[in-house]
Design goal:
single chain, Purple Acid Phosphatase, chain A, domain 2, six-stranded mixed beta sheet, 19 strands, globular
Length: about 600
Protein backbone atom coordinates (compact mmCIF):
# COMPACT_ATOMS: atom_id res chain seq x y z
CA UNK A 1 0.00 0.00 0.00
CA UNK A 2 2.77 2.46 0.88
CA UNK A 3 4.54 1.83 -2.45
CA UNK A 4 1.28 2.56 -4.29
CA UNK A 5 0.79 5.74 -2.31
CA UNK A 6 4.40 6.77 -2.96
CA UNK A 7 3.95 6.41 -6.71
CA UNK A 8 0.74 8.41 -6.48
CA UNK A 9 2.43 11.10 -4.41
CA UNK A 10 5.17 11.45 -7.05
CA UNK A 11 2.53 11.71 -9.77
CA UNK A 12 0.65 14.28 -7.77
CA UNK A 13 3.68 16.58 -7.60
CA UNK A 14 3.52 16.90 -11.39
CA UNK A 15 -0.12 17.87 -11.36
CA UNK A 16 -1.32 21.39 -10.62
CA UNK A 17 -4.93 20.85 -9.61
CA UNK A 18 -6.39 21.85 -6.28
CA UNK A 19 -7.20 18.28 -5.25
CA UNK A 20 -3.92 16.43 -5.75
CA UNK A 21 -4.19 14.79 -2.33
CA UNK A 22 -6.99 12.59 -3.57
CA UNK A 23 -5.10 10.56 -6.15
CA UNK A 24 -5.15 7.70 -3.65
CA UNK A 25 -8.90 7.67 -3.84
CA UNK A 26 -8.94 7.69 -7.63
CA UNK A 27 -6.52 4.78 -8.03
CA UNK A 28 -7.93 2.47 -5.38
CA UNK A 29 -11.64 2.65 -6.25
CA UNK A 30 -12.97 3.42 -2.78
CA UNK A 31 -12.25 5.53 0.26
CA UNK A 32 -12.06 2.46 2.46
CA UNK A 33 -9.12 1.15 0.44
CA UNK A 34 -7.14 4.27 1.33
CA UNK A 35 -7.38 3.83 5.09
CA UNK A 36 -3.73 2.99 5.72
CA UNK A 37 -1.55 5.56 7.55
CA UNK A 38 -0.21 8.34 5.29
CA UNK A 39 3.39 8.55 4.12
CA UNK A 40 4.04 11.20 6.73
CA UNK A 41 1.21 11.76 9.15
CA UNK A 42 -0.08 15.27 9.67
CA UNK A 43 0.72 14.94 13.38
CA UNK A 44 4.27 15.36 14.65
CA UNK A 45 4.70 11.66 15.43
CA UNK A 46 5.10 8.72 13.07
CA UNK A 47 2.04 6.95 14.47
CA UNK A 48 -1.36 6.89 12.80
CA UNK A 49 -3.98 9.32 13.96
CA UNK A 50 -5.90 7.93 16.94
CA UNK A 51 -9.06 5.93 16.50
CA UNK A 52 -12.13 7.17 18.32
CA UNK A 53 -14.18 5.13 20.73
CA UNK A 54 -17.81 4.73 19.69
CA UNK A 55 -18.86 5.89 23.17
CA UNK A 56 -17.06 9.19 22.64
CA UNK A 57 -19.13 9.92 19.57
CA UNK A 58 -22.56 8.71 20.56
CA UNK A 59 -23.13 11.27 23.32
CA UNK A 60 -25.05 14.47 22.68
CA UNK A 61 -23.87 18.04 23.36
CA UNK A 62 -20.96 18.83 25.64
CA UNK A 63 -19.45 15.36 25.46
CA UNK A 64 -16.58 14.89 27.91
CA UNK A 65 -13.60 12.56 27.75
CA UNK A 66 -14.25 9.06 28.96
CA UNK A 67 -11.09 9.03 31.09
CA UNK A 68 -11.40 9.58 34.84
CA UNK A 69 -8.56 12.10 34.90
CA UNK A 70 -9.50 15.78 35.42
CA UNK A 71 -10.28 17.59 32.21
CA UNK A 72 -7.55 20.22 31.69
CA UNK A 73 -9.83 22.19 29.36
CA UNK A 74 -12.85 22.61 31.66
CA UNK A 75 -15.10 20.72 29.29
CA UNK A 76 -14.20 22.83 26.25
CA UNK A 77 -13.42 21.01 23.00
CA UNK A 78 -12.02 24.06 21.20
CA UNK A 79 -10.12 27.04 22.56
CA UNK A 80 -12.39 29.97 23.25
CA UNK A 81 -12.03 32.35 20.36
CA UNK A 82 -10.97 35.20 22.66
CA UNK A 83 -8.25 32.99 24.16
CA UNK A 84 -6.63 32.70 20.72
CA UNK A 85 -6.31 36.49 20.53
CA UNK A 86 -4.38 37.55 23.64
CA UNK A 87 -3.52 40.81 21.93
CA UNK A 88 -7.12 41.47 20.97
CA UNK A 89 -8.38 42.70 17.64
CA UNK A 90 -6.07 44.41 15.13
CA UNK A 91 -5.43 48.03 15.96
CA UNK A 92 -6.60 49.19 12.54
CA UNK A 93 -9.89 48.95 10.70
CA UNK A 94 -9.49 46.99 7.46
CA UNK A 95 -11.04 48.47 4.35
CA UNK A 96 -13.02 46.41 1.88
CA UNK A 97 -11.77 47.71 -1.45
CA UNK A 98 -8.15 46.87 -2.14
CA UNK A 99 -7.95 50.15 -4.04
CA UNK A 100 -7.87 51.77 -0.59
CA UNK A 101 -5.77 49.30 1.39
CA UNK A 102 -4.84 45.66 1.59
CA UNK A 103 -4.52 42.88 4.13
CA UNK A 104 -0.84 41.98 4.43
CA UNK A 105 0.90 39.36 6.59
CA UNK A 106 2.84 41.00 9.40
CA UNK A 107 5.60 38.40 9.01
CA UNK A 108 6.13 39.20 5.33
CA UNK A 109 6.42 36.42 2.76
CA UNK A 110 5.52 32.78 3.46
CA UNK A 111 8.35 30.47 4.39
CA UNK A 112 10.17 28.86 1.48
CA UNK A 113 10.01 25.27 2.71
CA UNK A 114 7.11 23.95 4.81
CA UNK A 115 7.79 22.03 8.01
CA UNK A 116 6.21 18.62 7.45
CA UNK A 117 6.07 17.97 11.19
CA UNK A 118 3.92 21.05 11.88
CA UNK A 119 0.55 20.83 10.19
CA UNK A 120 -1.36 24.02 11.19
CA UNK A 121 -4.54 21.97 11.63
CA UNK A 122 -3.08 20.54 14.83
CA UNK A 123 -2.71 22.43 18.10
CA UNK A 124 1.05 22.00 18.12
CA UNK A 125 1.32 23.38 14.59
CA UNK A 126 -0.92 26.38 15.12
CA UNK A 127 0.82 27.39 18.35
CA UNK A 128 4.23 27.11 16.72
CA UNK A 129 3.18 29.32 13.82
CA UNK A 130 1.47 31.82 16.11
CA UNK A 131 4.77 32.14 17.98
CA UNK A 132 6.23 33.34 14.67
CA UNK A 133 3.37 35.83 14.19
CA UNK A 134 2.12 34.01 11.11
CA UNK A 135 -1.45 34.79 12.20
CA UNK A 136 -0.95 38.55 12.42
CA UNK A 137 -1.89 40.92 9.63
CA UNK A 138 -1.48 44.62 9.06
CA UNK A 139 -3.06 47.18 6.82
CA UNK A 140 -0.95 47.32 3.70
CA UNK A 141 -0.84 49.85 0.87
CA UNK A 142 -3.57 50.32 -1.68
CA UNK A 143 -3.24 48.12 -4.74
CA UNK A 144 -3.20 49.98 -8.03
CA UNK A 145 -5.53 49.43 -10.94
CA UNK A 146 -3.82 48.24 -14.10
CA UNK A 147 -5.31 48.96 -17.50
CA UNK A 148 -4.92 46.07 -19.93
CA UNK A 149 -5.48 46.36 -23.67
CA UNK A 150 -4.18 42.95 -24.74
CA UNK A 151 -7.18 42.46 -27.04
CA UNK A 152 -6.76 45.79 -28.82
CA UNK A 153 -6.41 49.44 -27.86
CA UNK A 154 -8.84 51.97 -29.35
CA UNK A 155 -7.57 54.64 -31.67
CA UNK A 156 -10.20 57.11 -30.46
CA UNK A 157 -10.07 58.91 -27.13
CA UNK A 158 -12.62 58.20 -24.43
CA UNK A 159 -16.06 59.57 -25.09
CA UNK A 160 -19.02 59.82 -22.74
CA UNK A 161 -18.84 56.78 -20.49
CA UNK A 162 -21.78 54.81 -19.13
CA UNK A 163 -21.93 52.01 -16.57
CA UNK A 164 -23.83 49.09 -18.08
CA UNK A 165 -23.55 46.36 -15.44
CA UNK A 166 -22.38 46.08 -11.82
CA UNK A 167 -22.05 42.71 -10.10
CA UNK A 168 -19.99 40.35 -7.93
CA UNK A 169 -17.96 37.31 -8.92
CA UNK A 170 -16.83 34.78 -6.32
CA UNK A 171 -16.18 31.04 -6.18
CA UNK A 172 -14.88 28.05 -4.27
CA UNK A 173 -16.43 28.45 -0.87
CA UNK A 174 -16.05 24.66 -0.47
CA UNK A 175 -18.42 24.63 2.46
CA UNK A 176 -17.60 21.32 4.12
CA UNK A 177 -19.24 18.81 6.41
CA UNK A 178 -16.00 18.49 8.33
CA UNK A 179 -17.26 15.44 10.25
CA UNK A 180 -18.12 13.40 7.13
CA UNK A 181 -16.72 9.86 6.84
CA UNK A 182 -15.69 10.56 3.22
CA UNK A 183 -13.01 13.08 4.17
CA UNK A 184 -9.30 12.70 3.38
CA UNK A 185 -7.89 14.65 6.32
CA UNK A 186 -5.24 12.03 7.02
CA UNK A 187 -3.71 12.60 3.56
CA UNK A 188 -3.11 16.33 3.99
CA UNK A 189 0.36 17.56 2.97
CA UNK A 190 1.76 20.90 1.76
CA UNK A 191 2.19 19.50 -1.77
CA UNK A 192 -1.36 18.18 -1.72
CA UNK A 193 -3.25 20.93 0.04
CA UNK A 194 -7.00 20.98 0.48
CA UNK A 195 -7.60 17.67 2.26
CA UNK A 196 -8.28 19.68 5.39
CA UNK A 197 -7.97 23.37 6.22
CA UNK A 198 -7.38 24.79 9.71
CA UNK A 199 -9.93 27.55 9.02
CA UNK A 200 -12.69 25.49 7.40
CA UNK A 201 -14.97 25.24 10.46
CA UNK A 202 -15.22 29.04 10.64
CA UNK A 203 -16.06 29.45 6.95
CA UNK A 204 -19.76 30.38 7.48
CA UNK A 205 -18.66 33.41 9.48
CA UNK A 206 -16.33 34.54 6.69
CA UNK A 207 -19.04 34.04 4.06
CA UNK A 208 -21.51 36.06 6.12
CA UNK A 209 -18.88 38.76 6.68
CA UNK A 210 -18.25 38.98 2.93
CA UNK A 211 -21.97 39.38 2.27
CA UNK A 212 -22.21 42.07 4.96
CA UNK A 213 -19.17 43.85 3.55
CA UNK A 214 -20.52 43.82 0.01
CA UNK A 215 -23.90 45.08 1.22
CA UNK A 216 -22.23 47.98 3.02
CA UNK A 217 -19.97 48.72 0.07
CA UNK A 218 -22.73 49.38 -2.45
CA UNK A 219 -24.56 52.67 -2.70
CA UNK A 220 -28.32 52.67 -2.28
CA UNK A 221 -28.54 54.38 -5.67
CA UNK A 222 -26.53 51.61 -7.37
CA UNK A 223 -26.91 48.17 -5.78
CA UNK A 224 -25.24 45.13 -7.25
CA UNK A 225 -27.43 43.71 -9.99
CA UNK A 226 -26.46 40.06 -9.45
CA UNK A 227 -23.73 37.70 -8.33
CA UNK A 228 -22.07 34.74 -10.08
CA UNK A 229 -20.93 31.89 -7.81
CA UNK A 230 -18.53 29.94 -10.01
CA UNK A 231 -18.73 26.50 -8.46
CA UNK A 232 -17.34 24.36 -5.65
CA UNK A 233 -19.98 25.81 -3.38
CA UNK A 234 -20.01 22.53 -1.42
CA UNK A 235 -16.92 20.46 -0.72
CA UNK A 236 -17.98 16.85 -1.15
CA UNK A 237 -21.26 16.69 -3.12
CA UNK A 238 -23.38 16.18 0.01
CA UNK A 239 -26.97 17.36 0.36
CA UNK A 240 -26.35 18.90 3.78
CA UNK A 241 -23.43 20.94 2.41
CA UNK A 242 -25.58 22.30 -0.42
CA UNK A 243 -28.40 23.07 2.03
CA UNK A 244 -25.99 24.95 4.29
CA UNK A 245 -24.62 26.91 1.35
CA UNK A 246 -28.08 27.96 0.19
CA UNK A 247 -29.08 29.00 3.71
CA UNK A 248 -25.99 31.19 4.09
CA UNK A 249 -26.49 32.86 0.69
CA UNK A 250 -30.18 33.39 1.47
CA UNK A 251 -29.61 34.69 5.01
CA UNK A 252 -31.38 31.75 6.66
CA UNK A 253 -30.51 30.28 10.06
CA UNK A 254 -27.96 27.50 9.65
CA UNK A 255 -26.13 25.04 11.89
CA UNK A 256 -23.15 23.34 10.27
CA UNK A 257 -23.21 20.28 12.48
CA UNK A 258 -23.73 16.70 11.30
CA UNK A 259 -23.93 13.45 13.20
CA UNK A 260 -23.98 14.18 16.94
CA UNK A 261 -25.09 17.58 18.21
CA UNK A 262 -21.76 19.12 19.15
CA UNK A 263 -21.13 22.18 21.30
CA UNK A 264 -17.34 22.37 21.58
CA UNK A 265 -17.42 25.69 23.48
CA UNK A 266 -20.19 26.01 26.04
CA UNK A 267 -22.76 28.65 25.21
CA UNK A 268 -24.34 30.06 22.03
CA UNK A 269 -22.66 31.85 19.15
CA UNK A 270 -19.07 31.10 20.11
CA UNK A 271 -17.98 28.05 18.10
CA UNK A 272 -18.35 26.60 14.57
CA UNK A 273 -21.09 24.17 15.63
CA UNK A 274 -23.47 26.77 17.04
CA UNK A 275 -26.37 27.99 14.88
CA UNK A 276 -25.76 31.31 13.16
CA UNK A 277 -28.01 33.79 11.40
CA UNK A 278 -25.86 34.90 8.46
CA UNK A 279 -26.11 38.04 6.39
CA UNK A 280 -27.63 37.23 3.01
CA UNK A 281 -25.81 37.81 -0.25
CA UNK A 282 -26.82 41.37 -1.23
CA UNK A 283 -28.17 40.58 -4.72
CA UNK A 284 -29.79 37.80 -6.75
CA UNK A 285 -27.20 35.06 -7.18
CA UNK A 286 -26.54 32.45 -9.84
CA UNK A 287 -25.14 29.00 -9.11
CA UNK A 288 -22.61 27.30 -11.42
CA UNK A 289 -21.73 23.68 -10.48
CA UNK A 290 -18.14 22.62 -9.85
CA UNK A 291 -16.38 19.31 -9.38
CA UNK A 292 -16.81 19.45 -5.58
CA UNK A 293 -20.55 19.97 -6.01
CA UNK A 294 -20.91 16.74 -8.00
CA UNK A 295 -18.05 14.48 -6.91
CA UNK A 296 -16.99 13.10 -3.54
CA UNK A 297 -14.20 15.36 -2.24
CA UNK A 298 -14.18 16.83 -5.74
CA UNK A 299 -12.58 13.87 -7.49
CA UNK A 300 -14.53 10.64 -7.10
CA UNK A 301 -17.54 9.86 -9.26
CA UNK A 302 -20.64 9.20 -7.21
CA UNK A 303 -21.33 5.45 -7.04
CA UNK A 304 -22.95 2.92 -4.74
CA UNK A 305 -19.78 2.44 -2.71
CA UNK A 306 -19.20 6.05 -1.78
CA UNK A 307 -22.93 6.69 -1.33
CA UNK A 308 -22.85 4.02 1.35
CA UNK A 309 -19.62 5.44 2.76
CA UNK A 310 -21.10 8.94 3.08
CA UNK A 311 -24.08 7.57 5.02
CA UNK A 312 -21.97 5.15 7.03
CA UNK A 313 -20.20 5.08 10.36
CA UNK A 314 -16.51 4.69 9.53
CA UNK A 315 -14.01 7.38 8.54
CA UNK A 316 -11.04 5.55 7.05
CA UNK A 317 -8.99 8.48 5.81
CA UNK A 318 -9.45 11.03 8.55
CA UNK A 319 -12.21 13.38 9.60
CA UNK A 320 -12.65 15.87 12.43
CA UNK A 321 -13.68 14.83 15.92
CA UNK A 322 -15.41 17.61 17.85
CA UNK A 323 -15.64 15.48 20.99
CA UNK A 324 -11.88 15.79 21.49
CA UNK A 325 -9.72 18.78 22.26
CA UNK A 326 -8.93 20.94 19.22
CA UNK A 327 -11.19 18.76 17.03
CA UNK A 328 -8.08 17.17 15.59
CA UNK A 329 -8.47 14.64 12.75
CA UNK A 330 -8.92 10.97 13.55
CA UNK A 331 -9.74 7.69 11.87
CA UNK A 332 -12.53 5.59 13.24
CA UNK A 333 -16.21 5.44 14.05
CA UNK A 334 -18.46 8.44 13.40
CA UNK A 335 -22.10 9.15 14.07
CA UNK A 336 -24.03 8.68 10.79
CA UNK A 337 -26.25 11.34 9.30
CA UNK A 338 -28.93 10.80 6.62
CA UNK A 339 -28.44 14.34 5.27
CA UNK A 340 -25.02 13.30 3.93
CA UNK A 341 -26.68 11.75 0.89
CA UNK A 342 -24.72 12.45 -2.29
CA UNK A 343 -25.93 14.76 -5.03
CA UNK A 344 -26.32 14.50 -8.78
CA UNK A 345 -27.18 17.16 -11.33
CA UNK A 346 -30.93 16.63 -11.05
CA UNK A 347 -30.97 16.89 -7.25
CA UNK A 348 -28.84 20.05 -7.32
CA UNK A 349 -31.28 21.64 -9.74
CA UNK A 350 -34.28 20.56 -7.66
CA UNK A 351 -32.70 21.81 -4.43
CA UNK A 352 -32.05 25.26 -5.89
CA UNK A 353 -35.54 25.45 -7.34
CA UNK A 354 -37.16 24.86 -3.96
CA UNK A 355 -35.21 27.52 -2.05
CA UNK A 356 -36.52 30.84 -0.68
CA UNK A 357 -37.79 33.49 -3.07
CA UNK A 358 -35.31 36.13 -1.83
CA UNK A 359 -32.77 37.22 -2.82
CA UNK A 360 -33.53 35.09 -5.91
CA UNK A 361 -33.78 34.53 -8.73
CA UNK A 362 -36.00 31.46 -8.56
CA UNK A 363 -33.79 28.45 -9.26
CA UNK A 364 -30.62 30.61 -9.26
CA UNK A 365 -30.32 30.07 -13.00
CA UNK A 366 -31.96 26.65 -13.22
CA UNK A 367 -35.47 26.12 -14.60
CA UNK A 368 -38.25 23.68 -13.80
CA UNK A 369 -38.07 20.62 -16.04
CA UNK A 370 -34.71 21.52 -17.56
CA UNK A 371 -32.75 18.83 -19.38
CA UNK A 372 -29.46 17.99 -17.65
CA UNK A 373 -28.44 15.17 -19.99
CA UNK A 374 -25.62 17.25 -21.49
CA UNK A 375 -24.94 19.16 -18.26
CA UNK A 376 -26.66 21.50 -15.84
CA UNK A 377 -26.28 24.36 -18.31
CA UNK A 378 -28.49 27.43 -18.47
CA UNK A 379 -28.94 30.90 -19.95
CA UNK A 380 -29.67 34.01 -17.88
CA UNK A 381 -30.32 37.51 -19.20
CA UNK A 382 -28.82 39.31 -16.22
CA UNK A 383 -29.17 42.74 -17.86
CA UNK A 384 -32.15 42.28 -20.16
CA UNK A 385 -31.50 43.37 -23.70
CA UNK A 386 -27.76 43.74 -23.12
CA UNK A 387 -25.85 41.10 -21.11
CA UNK A 388 -26.43 37.35 -21.16
CA UNK A 389 -24.73 34.71 -19.02
CA UNK A 390 -24.15 31.27 -20.54
CA UNK A 391 -23.50 28.97 -17.57
CA UNK A 392 -21.56 25.90 -18.67
CA UNK A 393 -21.43 22.83 -16.43
CA UNK A 394 -17.82 21.64 -16.82
CA UNK A 395 -17.99 18.84 -14.23
CA UNK A 396 -16.53 15.48 -15.20
CA UNK A 397 -18.89 12.80 -13.88
CA UNK A 398 -16.30 10.10 -14.59
CA UNK A 399 -14.21 11.47 -11.72
CA UNK A 400 -11.14 13.63 -11.39
CA UNK A 401 -10.79 17.27 -10.46
CA UNK A 402 -10.33 18.49 -14.02
CA UNK A 403 -13.27 19.60 -16.12
CA UNK A 404 -14.76 17.87 -19.13
CA UNK A 405 -16.97 19.14 -21.93
CA UNK A 406 -18.48 16.65 -24.36
CA UNK A 407 -19.07 17.28 -28.06
CA UNK A 408 -22.81 16.87 -27.45
CA UNK A 409 -22.71 19.82 -25.06
CA UNK A 410 -20.97 21.90 -27.71
CA UNK A 411 -23.33 20.87 -30.52
CA UNK A 412 -26.62 20.77 -28.65
CA UNK A 413 -26.18 23.68 -26.27
CA UNK A 414 -23.14 25.96 -26.55
CA UNK A 415 -23.06 26.61 -30.29
CA UNK A 416 -26.83 27.16 -30.57
CA UNK A 417 -26.75 29.57 -27.61
CA UNK A 418 -23.85 31.55 -29.07
CA UNK A 419 -25.68 31.79 -32.39
CA UNK A 420 -28.85 32.88 -30.60
CA UNK A 421 -26.94 35.60 -28.70
CA UNK A 422 -25.49 36.92 -31.95
CA UNK A 423 -28.95 36.99 -33.50
CA UNK A 424 -30.34 38.76 -30.41
CA UNK A 425 -27.51 41.29 -30.51
CA UNK A 426 -26.45 40.94 -26.86
CA UNK A 427 -23.13 40.75 -25.05
CA UNK A 428 -22.19 37.36 -23.62
CA UNK A 429 -20.20 36.27 -20.59
CA UNK A 430 -19.66 32.58 -20.12
CA UNK A 431 -19.48 31.23 -16.59
CA UNK A 432 -18.09 27.84 -15.61
CA UNK A 433 -16.20 26.36 -12.73
CA UNK A 434 -13.20 25.26 -14.77
CA UNK A 435 -11.07 27.48 -16.95
CA UNK A 436 -10.26 25.96 -20.32
CA UNK A 437 -6.71 25.39 -19.01
CA UNK A 438 -8.29 22.94 -16.54
CA UNK A 439 -10.44 21.01 -19.02
CA UNK A 440 -9.07 17.72 -20.33
CA UNK A 441 -10.23 14.60 -22.19
CA UNK A 442 -9.17 11.97 -19.65
CA UNK A 443 -11.60 9.69 -17.90
CA UNK A 444 -11.11 10.39 -14.21
CA UNK A 445 -7.79 11.96 -13.37
CA UNK A 446 -5.34 10.03 -15.56
CA UNK A 447 -7.57 7.55 -17.35
CA UNK A 448 -7.99 6.86 -21.05
CA UNK A 449 -9.04 9.57 -23.46
CA UNK A 450 -12.81 9.96 -23.78
CA UNK A 451 -13.59 9.92 -27.49
CA UNK A 452 -16.27 12.63 -27.54
CA UNK A 453 -14.59 14.99 -25.06
CA UNK A 454 -13.30 18.34 -26.34
CA UNK A 455 -10.03 19.72 -25.03
CA UNK A 456 -9.54 23.19 -23.59
CA UNK A 457 -7.67 24.79 -26.51
CA UNK A 458 -10.35 23.69 -28.97
CA UNK A 459 -13.07 25.19 -26.80
CA UNK A 460 -11.10 28.44 -26.56
CA UNK A 461 -10.84 28.68 -30.34
CA UNK A 462 -14.53 27.99 -30.74
CA UNK A 463 -15.59 30.63 -28.22
CA UNK A 464 -13.07 33.26 -29.35
CA UNK A 465 -14.52 32.99 -32.85
CA UNK A 466 -17.73 34.56 -31.50
CA UNK A 467 -17.05 38.26 -30.85
CA UNK A 468 -20.21 38.71 -28.73
CA UNK A 469 -18.32 36.86 -25.96
CA UNK A 470 -16.44 39.49 -23.97
CA UNK A 471 -15.52 37.51 -20.83
CA UNK A 472 -15.50 34.06 -19.25
CA UNK A 473 -15.90 33.88 -15.45
CA UNK A 474 -14.22 30.86 -13.83
CA UNK A 475 -12.99 29.38 -10.56
CA UNK A 476 -11.38 26.06 -9.50
CA UNK A 477 -7.70 26.87 -8.90
CA UNK A 478 -8.43 29.40 -6.12
CA UNK A 479 -6.14 31.84 -7.94
CA UNK A 480 -6.65 35.53 -8.59
CA UNK A 481 -5.90 35.50 -12.31
CA UNK A 482 -6.73 37.37 -15.51
CA UNK A 483 -5.95 35.88 -18.91
CA UNK A 484 -6.49 37.35 -22.37
CA UNK A 485 -7.71 34.70 -24.82
CA UNK A 486 -7.10 36.11 -28.27
CA UNK A 487 -9.30 35.50 -31.26
CA UNK A 488 -8.21 34.84 -34.84
CA UNK A 489 -8.36 38.42 -36.18
CA UNK A 490 -9.37 42.02 -35.46
CA UNK A 491 -13.03 41.23 -36.14
CA UNK A 492 -12.82 38.43 -33.58
CA UNK A 493 -10.53 39.90 -30.90
CA UNK A 494 -11.20 37.26 -28.22
CA UNK A 495 -12.34 37.51 -24.63
CA UNK A 496 -11.08 37.98 -21.06
CA UNK A 497 -10.90 35.01 -18.70
CA UNK A 498 -11.53 36.22 -15.14
CA UNK A 499 -10.74 34.13 -12.06
CA UNK A 500 -11.42 35.81 -8.72
CA UNK A 501 -9.80 33.65 -6.08
CA UNK A 502 -11.52 31.65 -3.37
CA UNK A 503 -13.35 32.40 -0.16
CA UNK A 504 -11.91 29.18 1.31
CA UNK A 505 -8.20 30.06 1.02
CA UNK A 506 -6.17 33.20 1.68
CA UNK A 507 -6.58 35.96 0.58
CA UNK A 508 -10.30 34.98 0.98
CA UNK A 509 -11.59 37.58 -1.47
CA UNK A 510 -14.30 38.27 -4.02
CA UNK A 511 -14.24 40.56 -7.04
CA UNK A 512 -16.61 43.38 -7.95
CA UNK A 513 -17.02 43.68 -11.73
CA UNK A 514 -18.39 46.63 -13.67
CA UNK A 515 -18.93 46.78 -17.44
CA UNK A 516 -18.53 50.31 -18.83
CA UNK A 517 -19.14 51.68 -22.31
CA UNK A 518 -16.28 54.03 -23.18
CA UNK A 519 -18.06 56.03 -25.88
CA UNK A 520 -15.35 55.17 -28.41
CA UNK A 521 -16.31 51.73 -29.66
CA UNK A 522 -14.86 49.86 -26.69
CA UNK A 523 -15.94 48.44 -23.37
CA UNK A 524 -13.96 48.40 -20.14
CA UNK A 525 -14.47 45.54 -17.72
CA UNK A 526 -13.39 46.87 -14.32
CA UNK A 527 -12.45 44.28 -11.70
CA UNK A 528 -11.74 45.19 -8.06
CA UNK A 529 -10.70 42.71 -5.35
CA UNK A 530 -12.63 42.94 -2.09
CA UNK A 531 -11.57 41.88 1.43
CA UNK A 532 -14.24 41.11 3.98
CA UNK A 533 -14.35 43.32 7.06
CA UNK A 534 -14.56 41.26 10.28
CA UNK A 535 -16.65 42.48 13.19
CA UNK A 536 -16.10 39.67 15.67
CA UNK A 537 -13.57 37.17 16.92
CA UNK A 538 -14.97 34.23 14.94
CA UNK A 539 -14.61 36.13 11.65
CA UNK A 540 -11.10 37.22 12.57
CA UNK A 541 -10.17 33.68 13.59
CA UNK A 542 -11.06 32.41 10.12
CA UNK A 543 -8.72 34.97 8.54
CA UNK A 544 -5.94 34.26 11.04
CA UNK A 545 -6.09 30.49 10.42
CA UNK A 546 -6.22 30.96 6.64
CA UNK A 547 -3.22 33.27 6.91
CA UNK A 548 -1.30 30.71 8.98
CA UNK A 549 -2.03 28.04 6.34
CA UNK A 550 -0.59 30.35 3.67
CA UNK A 551 2.38 31.67 5.65
CA UNK A 552 3.38 28.15 6.73
CA UNK A 553 3.43 27.13 3.04
CA UNK A 554 0.78 24.46 3.63
CA UNK A 555 -1.32 26.34 1.08
CA UNK A 556 -0.29 27.79 -2.27
CA UNK A 557 0.07 31.46 -3.10
CA UNK A 558 -3.17 32.44 -4.84
CA UNK A 559 -2.78 36.24 -4.67
CA UNK A 560 -1.81 36.89 -8.29
CA UNK A 561 0.06 39.92 -9.62
CA UNK A 562 -0.97 43.52 -10.20
CA UNK A 563 -2.08 42.42 -13.67
CA UNK A 564 -4.53 39.94 -12.09
CA UNK A 565 -6.07 41.94 -9.24
CA UNK A 566 -7.47 45.42 -9.79
CA UNK A 567 -7.83 45.77 -13.53
CA UNK A 568 -9.49 47.62 -16.37
CA UNK A 569 -9.87 45.16 -19.25
CA UNK A 570 -10.50 46.78 -22.64
CA UNK A 571 -12.41 44.94 -25.38
CA UNK A 572 -14.00 46.24 -28.59
CA UNK A 573 -17.79 46.41 -28.67
CA UNK A 574 -18.95 43.54 -30.90
CA UNK A 575 -20.64 44.80 -34.04
CA UNK A 576 -23.65 42.56 -33.39
CA UNK A 577 -24.19 44.15 -29.96
CA UNK A 578 -23.44 47.79 -30.79
CA UNK A 579 -27.12 48.74 -31.08
CA UNK A 580 -27.92 47.20 -27.68
CA UNK A 581 -24.93 48.92 -26.05
CA UNK A 582 -25.94 52.32 -27.43
CA UNK A 583 -29.54 51.83 -26.34
CA UNK A 584 -28.71 50.84 -22.76
CA UNK A 585 -25.91 53.44 -22.49
CA UNK A 586 -28.34 56.24 -23.29
CA UNK A 587 -30.05 55.79 -19.91
CA UNK A 588 -27.26 54.12 -17.93
CA UNK A 589 -25.49 55.86 -15.01
CA UNK A 590 -22.56 58.08 -15.93
CA UNK A 591 -20.97 57.45 -12.54
CA UNK A 592 -18.38 54.66 -12.68
CA UNK A 593 -18.67 52.92 -9.30
CA UNK A 594 -15.30 51.22 -9.71
CA UNK A 595 -13.58 54.59 -9.93
CA UNK A 596 -15.70 56.42 -7.34
CA UNK A 597 -17.42 54.26 -4.72
CA UNK A 598 -14.67 51.63 -4.67
CA UNK A 599 -12.11 54.40 -4.25
CA UNK A 600 -13.94 55.71 -1.20
CA UNK A 601 -15.75 58.59 -2.86
CA UNK A 602 -19.26 59.47 -1.62
Amino acid sequence: MRSVLLRLRIASLRYHSRMRFSLCLLALESLAACAAPPLSTSDASDTPLPLADAADLAAAPDVTDAADAPDPHDGQRLPRCEDTEPGGAPTFTPVASTLLGSIEPMAGLPIAQPDLSLNPVFERGELAYRARNFHEYVRGPAQTRLRRADLGDPAAALGTRASLAYFVHLSDTQLVDDESPTRLANLDTPTASGAIRPQEGWLPYAMSAMHRTLAALQRTQRPFQFGIIAGDCADSAQQNELNWFMNILNGQRVELDSGADDDPVTGPGNDPKDPIMPTAFPAPWYFVPGNHDLEVVGVSAVAVGNRDQALGTYAGTGTRNYTRWWAEPFRGTVVPDPTRTLLDRATIVQSLLTGPAAPGPAGHGFAVGMDVSVGANYVADVVPGLLRILALDSSDLSGGSQGMVHQATIDQWLLPQLARAEADGVLVMLASHHATTDIDRNQGQFGPVVADAVDGPAIEQLVAAHPVVIAWLVGHNHDVRIRAVRGPDAAHPGYWEIQSGSIADFPNQSRVIEVVFNGNGTLSIFGTMIDYEPTGCLERRFRRLALIDYMAAWESNHRGTDADRNVELVVPVPAAAMAAVNTIAASAPARIESETTLRGMP
